[in-house]
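Two proteins were folded this term; both appear here.
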Amino acid sequence: MDHSPEHYYVPPQSHWPIIGAVGLFCTLGGTALTLHSMQQGQVSLFSQIILYSGVMIMAGMMYGWFANVIAETRKGLYSRQLDFSFRFGMSWFIFSEVMFFFAFFGALFYVRFFALPWLGGEGDKGIAHMLWPDFTAVWPLLSAPDTEQFPPIKEIINPWHVPVINTVLLLTSSLTLTLAHKALKLGKRGMIKLWLTITLMLGLSFLALQVVEYLEAYQHLDLTLRSGIYGATFFLLTGFHGVHVTIGSIILFVLLIRVFKGHFTKEKHFAFEAGAWYWHFVDVVWIILFTVVYVL
């Protein structure tokens, strides 16, 4: 029986927002200080302390805040109106993530179809070719005009090795997560645990293979962040996607723990749905990324 109140639940005052603000400030400030010290040739211990302190504060804030939300949900304090606001908020969050990746894909598109041809002498702005008269505009750009500052790349990542395996892993994980969601709606808790565990294992396998790919790129292909515009866009897009897969894996792990604790019902399981939305979004981004970064 649904015991949710008809009124809109207003939670009591919370200290988590201010703690989150402090943690975010330390994380961003520590990151900036760390990058600055790296440019000086030596990583500062002070900047690392600030950075990792911020990360720990953020982790503690998220754990405590979400624990409060879960407890309130379990008590049946949330009405249908508040449930709708959660869905609306998650939708806007995913939209912001879409715009985040859109910016990086847009930068890649601009470089490939505008800036690079201009440097090669094409178009109305082809006068830029005067900067490096011997430059040949080809993509992927293995050798930047300034080879002293940007060392050339020996070879790019073969898309039909690790990347295609990772594509299969993520597509399969979307299927298994959908099966877990379907099992939740049917009340089959054993099947939920099975399919959700498989989904988590597929996500972790993706991350492990991503690490293998990065090691190959740095150690054998000379493909690094310093490899000109191709190396920069490659690692920014794949790196940020890897961060999102890591976040998604943490979400799946928390959902799995909650399933084992007996949380979620056929009727009320928005947290599960929100995690599924995020994971499917990450999968869609990877399909686009695999196509435009590795294949084309």
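Next, the second protein.
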Amino acid sequence: MPTNPTRDRINPELIDTTPKRRPSWIRVRAPSGETYEELHHLMRVKSLHTVCEEAGCPNMGECWGSGTATFLMLGDVCTRTCGFCDVKHGRPEVMDWAEPERVAQAVMKMNLKHAVITSVNRDERRDGGAPIFAMVIRRIRQLLPGCSVEVLIPDFKGSVEALRIVMAARPEILNHNVETVPRLFKQVQPQDRYEWSQAILTNARRLDADVLTKSGIMVGLGESFEEVQETMRDLRSWGVDILTIGQYLQPSRKHLPIRRYYEPEEFEALKDFGLELGFKWVESAPLVRSSYHAGEQVRALSNVHRALYKDQ
């Protein structure tokens, strides 16, 4: 049965119930407007999930209004219990092989410019649900040529075979978030391994060098500034092209606490550092999330996108 994702798994020493006042630069606007209402209705009609809604993304209104949405596939119940995530966890339902068609139809109906496809973890499956990613990429291409596709995939426990299934469909962007620094991995995401993230990102580059690779880091969980920089060095050495860095915001008091809020100047410094390391694109600001400005990244950087749609 699905449960709250962190109730029994977080180290009690990490729980901090002291209220923390949000600084002035953290301003989350409630999504609203005609476009938002239309898309929200469409999601319900087609029985679809978006990580925008499930994770309470602060940029949902802006992204939906600009023609970008992030779909959550493989159901809405995760097999892992990450301490930052508000998605339900437990035993997932059987795989829904009609889900890619529904998502692709919604992408076409919304006339999206850029679709981001992510998923819960499905550790009960050897392939981690990789075929679903490939199916939805190909179907979107059939129904809405010109819409770029980014996949934000789980680590598949480092499986090259599962990754190859996704890469064969040639998304414009292959994204996998490390989320935090190596020292905090077991506290923040206890079933994940840093080596699995490394395997996914380095092998994606080897399988298809034309597909952009991307990763993201949350800050404010107790890492040092220097540890963030070291993780950025790792990601660049793995061949990652695009990096996102944003402030962790605690979904509830049952989730990992915010250890500190980074200053806007620190985000700027991390952006400058990332560009110096050689990342092609760095988004670094308090409310940055993985899909933020994703469509712009594709249009500016993707060889796959230009090759597929050069005649349009």
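The longest helix spans residues 130-143. Residues 33-309 form a domain with the TIM Barrel fold (CATH 3.20.20.70). These notes refer to the second protein only.
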